[in-house]
Amino acid sequence: MRKAPLAALGIATAISIPAISRAATFDFVETGATCDTPSQCSLPANQPFKLISLALPDALSSGTAFWDGTNSPAYTGTAFSITVAANHGFTVSSSFAGGPNCAAGGVICDFDITWSATQDALIAVAINIDAIHDDVGGLARAAGQPAFGLNGGAIASDGNLGGCESTRCLVSGSWRVDPVPEPRSLVTLLMSLALMWVIGGICGGVSRLHDPVAD
Questions:
Q1: How far apart are CA 206 and CA 199, in angstroms?
Q2: DSSP β-ladder status, 152-157 and 90-93
Q3: Residue 14: pLDDT above 60?
Q4: End-to-end CA distance of the chain
Q5: Model confidence pLDDT, tens digit, residues 145-191
Q6: 71 in helix, strand or coil?
Q7: Residue 133 — φ and ψ, nearest 5°?
Q8: How far is it, in rounded angstroms, from Cα 95 to Cα 181?
Q9: Segment 61-85, tens digit of pLDDT
Q10: How far is Cα 177 from Cα 181, in angstroms, rounded to an integer?
């Protein structure tokens, strides 16, 4: 009798393997730009150009971050880090505990950020960051314009930010997830094979007790 492997397979496939969380980085790739001063606006030469990177500890993530430049920052949800690729590049993260604002010589003036990611997609994001030399959303927005979102938004710079040189621009593009090694499928396979081996051994032993002449 050789029923043990089939029994083991049925039991192993019925066992739920817990999901393995993994870090994810979402990059906004700029594909278009229009500026208040057209002569000071062009797409960066090094295409595809990653204008903003949002790093999260888990692909399943959501949260908010707010700082008015005066009071202590307020955070909800998971940790995060946003890096802006300007010639005066800067980073805003949940490790920021407050400090001098731009008026007092700091790099970051204020921020208001929300995001939501599920599996390998950023499904919602709104970014307003005002820095000493650059703005993403925030003060770069004209009246009625939304925050920097899934398809881009307003930016401004005293230097060069995404090809926007000393002017205000509207940039377009999309968020893409950085390739990250995916351990889940391999681990799931190995765990399933181990379970099949253990359960198969048990079932095989039980079968021999009831069938001494089993081949």
A1: 11
A2: unpaired
A3: no
A4: 7
A5: 999 999 999 999 999 999 999 999 999 999 999 755 455 444 444 55
A6: coil
A7: -120, -15
A8: 25
A9: 999 999 999 999 999 999 999 999 9
A10: 12
Count of H-run helices and E-run strands, the chain: 2, 13
Residue 32, C-beta contacts closer than 8 angstroms, at least 6 positions apart: 43, 152, 171, 172, 173
Q: Are 135 and 129 in contact (CB under 8 A)?
A: yes
φ, ψ at 20 (rounded to 5°): -105, 120
Task: Quote the pTM value.
Answer: 0.75
- Average of per-residue pLDDT across 22-42: 92
Strand partners, 114: 64, 126
Q: Mean pLDDT over all residues of the chain?
A: 82
Q: How far apart are CA 117 and CA 123, in angstroms?
A: 5
Q: Which residue has the higher pLDDT, 1 or 141?
A: 141
45-52, Cβ contacts within 8 angstroms, sequence gap of 24 or more: 49/85, 49/162, 49/163, 50/85, 51/84, 51/85, 51/155, 51/161, 51/162, 51/171, 51/173, 52/27, 52/28, 52/82, 52/83, 52/84, 52/85, 52/127, 52/136, 52/148
* pLDDT for position 205: 55
Token output for 131: 């820095």
CA distance linking residue 64 with residue 76, whole number of Å? 5
Q: Would the CA dihedral through 95, 99, 101, 104 be positive or negative?
A: negative
The beta strands (E) that lie in 10-139 are given as 24-35, 49-56, 61-67, 74-77, 81-84, 90-93, 108-118, 121-131, 134-136
Q: Three-class SS of residue 198?
A: helix
